[in-house]
Structure formats: structure tokens, C-alpha cells
Amino acid sequence: MHLCSYPAHRLRFSCTYSVMAISISHRCFSASSTLAHYSVFEKTHLSPSLDVTKSSQRPIKTPSLKEFCKQGNLTEAFRSFSHLFTDHNINVNFPDEAYAQVLDLCASRKAFSQGKQIHAHLIKSLDICESSFLETKLVFMYGKCGSLFDAQILFDKMPQKTIFTWNAMLGAYVSNGEPLGALQTYREMRILGISLDACTFPCVIKACGMLKDLNSGAEIHGLAIKCGYDSIGFVVNSLVAMYAKCYDLLKATQLFDRMGEKEDVVLWNSLISAYSANGQCLQALELFKDMQRAGLVTNAYTFVAALHACEDSSFEMLGMQIHAAIIKSRQNLDVYVANAVISMYARCGKMIEAAEVFHELGNKDSVSWNSMLTGFVQNDLHGKAIQFFRSSLRAGQKPDQVSIINALSASGRVGNLLNGKELHVYAIKHGFVSDMQVGNTLIDMYAKCCYVNYMGRAFDQMSEKDFISWTTIIAGYAQNNCHEKSLELFRKVQIEGMDADVMMIGSILMACSGLKCVSQVKEMHGYIIRNGLSDLVIQNAIVDVYGECGNIGYARRMFESIESKDVVSWTSMISSYVHNGLANEALELFYFMNETNVESDSITLVSVLSAAASLSVLKKGKEIHGFIIRKGFKLEGSSASSLVDMYARCGALGTAYKVFNSVRIKDLVLWTSMINANGLHGRGKAAIDLFYKMEDESLNPDHITFLALLYACSHSGLISEGKRFLQIMICEYQLEPWPEHYACLVDLLGRGSCLEEAYQFVESMQIEPTAEVWCALLGACRVHSNKRLGEIAAQKLLELNPGNPGNYVLVSNVLAASGRWKEVEQVRMRMRGSGLKKTPGCSWIEIGNKLHTFVARDKSHAESDEIYHKLAQITEKLEREGGYVPQTKYVLHNVEEEEKVQMLYGHGERLAIAYSLLKSPGGTPIHVTKNLRVCVDCHTFCKLVSRFFRRELVVRDANRFHHFEDGVCSCGDYW
Asked: pLDDT category, 784, cuts 50, 70, 90?
């Protein structure tokens, strides 16, 4: 029963006890007493009753109240206390002592409701208007029980306050997280001239540490010295902790070293915690070892401080040793220490060990669950984090701020939008959404899930925003290709007067890269220099962004200006070269990098594999593959898919399959790379088979997968299959086609002579046809000489993309094929007037670990005479034995017939083939790469060479691979 349950004349304790005396003659309660006006006890007509458990009366001797309080037995202590005030014990000799003992027990057990019962009983039973001792005990009890409001009201109404009362109020403020209140009370004490004692200092010093107010802490330290308390252990402990929290570890260590006998465990714990909290983990662990060597008995706080110092996997062994010492020192882990062990294993990446400790822990609290959840997120086990979060809900755990933040973060990392939305709803219902950190995590989650609208709403609905909020939303827009929105918010940040940091600048540079706006990049570069933000991370990002925007000169100058280049610096420059079609320079820089002390990483290797693939240099690609093996890189993820792509683009499809089959866990990118590899080599049926096998592995294709599949169908003439896969993409996988998908289907229909159907498809598209779509249609019109549709496509193409020189060349070639030379000249003049230049045709071949390059009618090679002599011999043999006749209609220049023949004879791929027949061993395949589409006459030439010279030819042009063997091409003359 509760204190206010019955009126005074009916009040009884449990049925085994006599009626309690309502008043005691020598301690009458005065109506004018300070406590009579205490708001919590307005209903003073109700008499107190103590809520005790009913039990039978036992005549045997039981422990005293003091003993029960010492044992911490709240129920028995209350029963013993009640017995003191029965009829048989009406003259209690020391009621103050009895009340004090029970109040101290309530404080230690944080038994707030029981403490209030004692307070009510005390009001009714005694006149305590002059008992500052008991009032002080009450202030102390309320402070310890977390009721700062009750402690403050009681303290303010006390007519007399001793130093103990002031200290109790100081402690109440500090223990309830109100350090400012503690310092204000301390200053009031100083103004009133209250004499301080040793117990005053730890509270106010701790308040300074909580506020990181070093000046006030040093001032109070000076007063402690003046009062002669600076040599007392618990005062020194508080000073050490205060200086540590204020990041003055030198002063903290000096105080520690001055202590003579360092036998106080709390002192050691304070300094170990200080070093650990300030990131000086080695010093913290060295202190822990010194403490053990000194023979001091460690306690739970010592172990927790030492475990916190084990901050990452490099401290794994030490952490395990501390865990062993904990097990050795006691049989059962208490939850406080167990949580620290779990966190230590999680930080060291040992989640199996962390889980073992967690499962063995009987009395798990919210910190235990959150430590495990945080560990999963920290170790990138985001799927397991979500599973664990659901397990915690099934176990009856109520999510708090920490668990909500971790679960949101994990949902974002795995792209689980539904889970993220559910957490958002829960956060709204339970008031967590107003927390700034939760709000920031929501923004990040929606950004990771590519849900930009919800991301913006979450940001707009935040009542308070900090710098992290702005940084997160700017990064979210930049990562989701909303580059202009990202720049707009950055301008708002500047208007608000906030200074951008490295993270925000990185996002803005990403936005500039997406917009391909060099002027904006230069502006940001200037901002970075003016504001002194040019650290290595930003310098690397600038190199990368200049490269992405096509300004390779600025990228190179930025790279060269970096004094201490790391692997990211080199990789950024290599990637810039690759992105701008300078694959040779990328490979040279990679080899130069290996001569320095900078070790390549997996991203570097992906970039350099891309360079080898673009050049189709198989030997270089094999060297890089060997490098990957020697350096012990795992063949997985991007490195595996890049190797498959490299071998495929170097003509070694069989080796690409070997790499593909050697990877145990194949991701979507790897399957897509292999599908694309087959399409590149004209193996459309094989690409389709791979697609179905991928589906059998429960992998869902994305836009890129379908693009590779449609590409494969296009280059194998699989018209019905291509149409079907576009429908599957839309209907089964709910993927909205990109312009590139439409262009692939138009190309497929066009190559298959279905020009009218292709045109109707373009006209019926749900989106406005892009330049890529009209380009595909125009190319088909050129092959099949469809003048009417060609003119329509040519006009649309030049309207939509007048800045691409390749489009002008295609239009002029279509006109030239029809003999419309006047119009051809007009197009070429328009092209020159725009400052555009045609990309010259170029072919290259790798012989003797060296790349040999040839352009049409090129005579710059050192062995040019021998090459042309060999080519003449080849042509003569093909004319004599193979009936070869030059097809001059494919020479789209208005020149004489003889000159057309010479132009055909001088094509770069023929020069490369002639050089290979001069230098390579007989019977070995000839690999030639060309940057433009191979012409029909050269295609015929290659077929005849493969037949009459008994050599396999592998020619990679701008579109695909052609495998020539015994006079037949793998493309089936369909390209």
C-alpha cells in the first residue's frame, strides 16, 4: 500500500504489527515547518504507510535495521524500520539515525518511490524543522534517485544549511548532468562565505570537467591548494579526471606522479580513462600494466578503462589478455564489464567472440544490445545488424536513440528502403525524430537508398540543423546526381556564415564533376586555396575532378604539385588518363608508380586494367594479372570483373571465362561483365544462356545487365530475343529503360533491315529520342542506303548534338554514299566552323612487348619501307589467288578511282597486319585493334588473309570483335 492510501486515524502497517503512534510527544510536527509547504506533500491529512511485503511474525532474533541496510536488503530494511515504530517500540531512542540509514539505502538503490514514502512518514511522525541532518539526507537521496527538482525545492526551503547540505546539492546537480547548476551553487557558496570542506571540491571539479572549463577548474584547483586539500586522494582523483577531460593530460600526469603512495585504485582508473578518452591508448595500457605490476587489486572500472583503450584490431591480443584476466578474477561478468568486453571485440572486428560474450551474459541491458548492434554496423555487417535489431525487438527490447541510429545506418548501407521507412515511422511515434543525430542519420539513409524526395523532406522537417545536417544533405544530393541542388545548398551554407570542411568540399567537387563544369571546379579550387582547406584528400579529389571534366592539363599540374603523393594521388591521375583516352600514359604512370615506395591498391589495379583493356594489349594485361596474384589481392568484386573485361577486350575470351569460373562468389557486376564479353565477341546466344544462369542464382539484373544483353542481341542479329528482353526488363523487373536501351533496340532493328519498324519504334518512344537513338537509326540507314529516313535521322542528330564531331562524320558519310558531294562539303564546312575535328582512324598491334601504331597511309614507322613492300606482296597474292577486288564504293571521298584504291590499300589495319606477318612467328594469331569501325573492304581483306596465309586474325574495332579464320568471320558479315 502507498503512503497516501488511508487517513491518519485508520493507518496501519501490515497485519502483524500494532497500530503506529500518530505522534510522538517529544517530536511534534509543526504546521509552520518548512516541509509543510513542500509541493509534493500537499495532502497532509493523509497519514504515512510503508509499502512492505506481508509475512508471518517470527519470534526468533532477526538482524538489526543497520545490518539490513548494510546488506542492501530494501524489503527487510523497511520491515525492520516499521517495527521500530510499533506500540512496543514507541520510544525510539535515535529516530534520526534510523531515518538516515533507510534514506541512505534508498539513495544507494536509487529507490525513488520508497524514498518518498520515508519522506512522507518523516513529515507525519516527526518535527524536523530544526533537523538539518535529515533534510540533508533527503536532498542527497533525491539527487541520487534522479529527482533534481525535488532536491532543489527541499534545498531552497531549508532555513539552515550546513556544509553537508551544500555538498549534497552540488552532488545532486553533478549526478543529474547539470554541471552549470553545480558551478552556480558553488559561486553562491563563495559569495555567502560558506566554509568549504574536502568533499566540496570533487563535485565542483567534476562539473568543470563535464563542461571542459579548464579555467574554472584551474581556479578551483588553486583554492584547493590554498585550503590544504590538494593532497587528499579523492580530491587529487577528481583533479586528474578534470584535467584529462579538458585535454590537459600533462597536468593530469604531473598530479599523478606527485602522489607518494599510489595505492588508490580510483586514482589509477582516472588516469587510465583519461589517456584512453584522449586517444593515447598505448599510454593507457602501459599504466594498466604498471598497476598490475604494483600489485594493486583491479576493479570493474579498471578493466572497463583498459578495454576502452583497445581501440582497434592492433590491440586485439591485449584485449583478449584483459578478458582472460577478468575471467580469472571473478566467476561471473557483471553487465558493466561485459558490455566493455563486447565493445572491445567489436572494435577489433571479432564479432564471433563478441557474440559469445553477449549470449553468455544473463542480465543483458540496453547497452549490451546496442554494443552488439553498433559492432555489426562498425564492421560493415549491415545485413546482420538488421537481423540482430529484429531479434532485439522479439526479445522485448524497446529501441532507443542509439539502436534507431544504428538500424537506420545499416538500412541505408544495404539499400533497405522499406526497413528505413518503418524505423522513420517508429522514430516519429516515439519522439526520436526530434533528435538531431537521428535526423542526420535519416537523411543519410534516404540518400543511400536513392530516395531523394524523402531525403529532402527529412532535412526540411528538422527543427534544428547542425553542420553535419548540411554536410549530409549536400553529399546526398551530389551522390544522387542532383548536382545543381547540391551547389544551391552550398551557397546557402555560405550565406549562413558556416565554414565548409573537407567533407563538404568533397561533395561539392563531386557535384562539379557530375556537371562537367570546369569553370565551377576552378572556382571551388580557388575557394579551397583561399580558405586553407587544401589537404591531401582534397588535392587528390581536385586531380580526379579535373580529369572527369576533361581538363587533363590541370589534372596533371595538380598531381605534380602534390608533395607527398599517396596511392589515391597516383590512382586519381591514372584514372584521369584512362577517362580521357590516354591509356598509354596511364600504363606508363602505373609502372613509374611501382618504382616509388607507394603500394598499389585494388582501385589502382582496376584503373590500370581498364587502360590495358582500352588498348587491347594482352601482354600488359597479363603482367597486371600476375602483379595482382603476387601481391596477394583477392580475386573478387571489382578486381575480378575488371580482369574478365580486360581479357575479353584483349580478345582472350577463353581466359576471361577461366577467370570468371575461378571466382567462388559471383556478384551481379561479374555476371554482367561476362555477358558483355560474349556480346563483344558476337556470341549472343552464349550471352543469353549466361543471363538465365544468373537468374537461377537468384540475382536480379539491373540496367547495365540489360544493356549488355541488348548489345549482345544487337551484334548477333537476335531481333526477337532483343525485343523480348526489353519487355522483360520493363514488365518483370520494373526497370525504366534508359536512352541507351532504346538505342540498342533501334540498332538491332536497323541492322536486321527492319528500318521502318525501327523508325516507328523511335516515334512511339515514351521519352524524347536522344542523339544516341537517332545515331543508331542513321547508321542503319547508311548500311541499307535508305535516303528518306537517313535525312530525317541526320537532321535530328545534328539538332540534338551539334558538338560531337562523330555525328558530322556519320552524316557526311551517308551523304557521300549517295554521291551528294555538295551537301557533304557543306556538312564538313559546318563542322570546321564549329571548331570540331574528325577523329583520325588509327590501328595498333603489340609485338615484342611494344605497341606499334598506324594511321591511314602512314610512313612514320621506322620500318615503313619493309611494311609497304610486304603489304604489296600480300595484296598481289590475294588478287591472284583469292580474286580480291578493291570495293572503292566504300571510299567516301570525291576523288579519282585510282586514288580511292590507294586509299583503301593504305588503311591502318592493313599496315598493322603486314607488320605482324613480317615480325610474328608463323601460325600465331594476329591481334589488331582499331579505334573506328572496320570498313567492308578491309573486312573482306582480313577474311582472305586468314585463308591464304593460314593465320587467325582477331580484329577489335570500335563496336566489337571480329575473329577471322580460314576465310570466315565470327560476325557472319553482320556488324
From this structure: confident
* β-strands 968-969, 961-965 pairing: antiparallel
Which amino acid is present at 666?
A: K
Average predicted confidence (pLDDT) for the chain: 86
Output the pLDDT for position 330. Answer: 67
Higher pLDDT, 270 or 330: 270
Mean pLDDT of 248-266: 81
Q: Which of 261, 263, 262, 283 is nearest to 274 (CA)?
A: 283
Q: Which residues are paired to 19 by β-bridges? A: none
Question: Is 80 a residue whose pLDDT tops 90?
Answer: no
CA atoms within 13 A on the CB side of 212: 5
Under DSSP, the state recorded for 457 is H
HEC assignment per residue over 195-261: CCCCCHHHHHHHHHHHHCCHHHHHHHHHHHHHHCCCCCHHHHHHHHHHHHHCCCHHHHHHHHHHCCC
CA 959 to chain centre: 37
Residues 958 and 932 sit within 8 Å (Cβ to Cβ):
yes
Distance (Å, whole) CA 805 – CA 168: 84
Helix (H, G, I), strand (E, B), or coil: what is residue 741? Answer: helix
Cell numbers for 198? 574536502
pLDDT band at 46 (very low <50, low <70, confident <90, very high): very low
pTM: 0.68
CA dist 382 and 162 (Å) reads: 56
Q: Quick one: residue 869, left, alpha or beta (phi over 0 = left, psi -120 to 50 = alpha)? A: alpha
Count of other CB atoms within 10 angstroms of residue 153: 16
Identify the pLDDT of residue 86.
Answer: 62
Q: Cell digits for 529? A: 586555396
Which range has the worst mean pLDDT, 53-57, 202-206, 425-429, 775-779?
53-57
Q: How many residues comprise the chain?
A: 975
What Å distances lie between residue 781 and 717, 746, 787, 808, 936, CA to CA? Answer: 16, 11, 7, 15, 16
Kindly indicate the confidence band of residue 625, based on its pLDDT and cuts at 50, 70 and 90: very high
- What's the per-residue H, E or C state across 466-486? CHHHHHHHHHHHHHCCCHHHH
List the grid coordinates of 652. Answer: 582472350
